[in-house]
Amino acid sequence: MHKTNDPPSIVSSHQFNLASFPYIFVTTMVVPADASKDAPGTGWSKDTKKEKNSELQEHVAFFDKDRDGIIWPTDTLYGLRDLGFGYFWTIVGTLTIHLTFSWITWGSIPPDPYFRLKVNRIHKAKHGSDTEVYTGTGEFDPDRFEYMWYMYTEKPHTHITINETMRMVRGDLNPFDPFGWFCATFEWIPLFILLDPADGKMAKDDVKAVYDGSLFWRIAEQNQQRKNLGAKNGKRD
């Protein structure tokens, strides 16, 4: 069989293939030249030597499993279900994400009637009153992350509580920015639900893994393994 160095295509949610999981970390996405421009093409590139990746594009890659550069509401819905969210948060999350970010990421004056998102314009979805860990072009700023983390967490700075998170959200609020206030709050509450820490503290590495989306693939993999194990045990019974 002829072999290539290209990563395999990531299949749909209902055909989630664990073998494809590691390739999300070597698949490269294209950073826009500046924050006012779209990323070239669909926002995806296989050439890891020439193109630099955007962590914000990686963040949404989990939901664009066919890698066509377009995220439909159904893509988000199935992705949230793969992450283990119940129907309530899945529906609320899908509606919130696509109703608020479709127009700005679609790039046309008339809104998209299907409320889809374009990956090559996903940096346009960066809103005010956030932590500023993402730059205007969607890249991860490690210095800003460390600065934010050490400002709001207690020693030894390995975890963050819900109270510390809400204090951080309040500290980042910009004046006269109700849309940003809503988005900032909405982003952190589902993360606590997703991680569901037993001690009420989110680990630093888990939070950091949200920014490049690697946390999503890890949790989806764990959920799939549990389903497979349950199916095997069911057959034995």
Short description:
With 237 residues, the protein is mainly alpha-helical. Helix content is 46%, strand content 6%.
Describe the structure.
It contains 8 helices and 6 strands, in the order E-E-H-E-H-H-E-H-E-H-H-E-H-H. The strands form 3 sheets. It has a two-stranded antiparallel ribbon. A two-stranded antiparallel sheet has the order 3-4. Strands 5-6 form a two-stranded antiparallel ribbon. Helices cover 46% and strands 6% of the residues. The chain is mainly alpha-helical. Helix 2 runs antiparallel to helix 3 and helix 5 packs antiparallel against helix 6. This is EF-hand domain-containing protein. Belongs to the caleosin family.
Let me know the largest β-sheet.
Answer: 2 strands, antiparallel
Radius of gyration: 18 Å
Give start-end ranges of low-pLDDT stretches.
1-27
Cα shape? globular
What share of the residues does DSSP label as strand, in percent? 5-15%
Q: Mean pLDDT, rounded to whole units?
A: 85
Structural class: mainly alpha
Helical fraction: 40-55%
Q: Helix and strand succession?
A: EEHEHHEHEHHEHH
Distance between the termini: 40 Å
Lateral arrangement of strands in the main beta sheet: 1-2
How many individual β-strands?
6
Query: How many alpha or pi helices?
Result: 8
Keywords for this structure?
mainly alpha, 8 helices, 46% helix, two-stranded antiparallel ribbon, membrane, two-stranded antiparallel sheet, single chain, 237 residues, transmembrane, EF_hand_dom
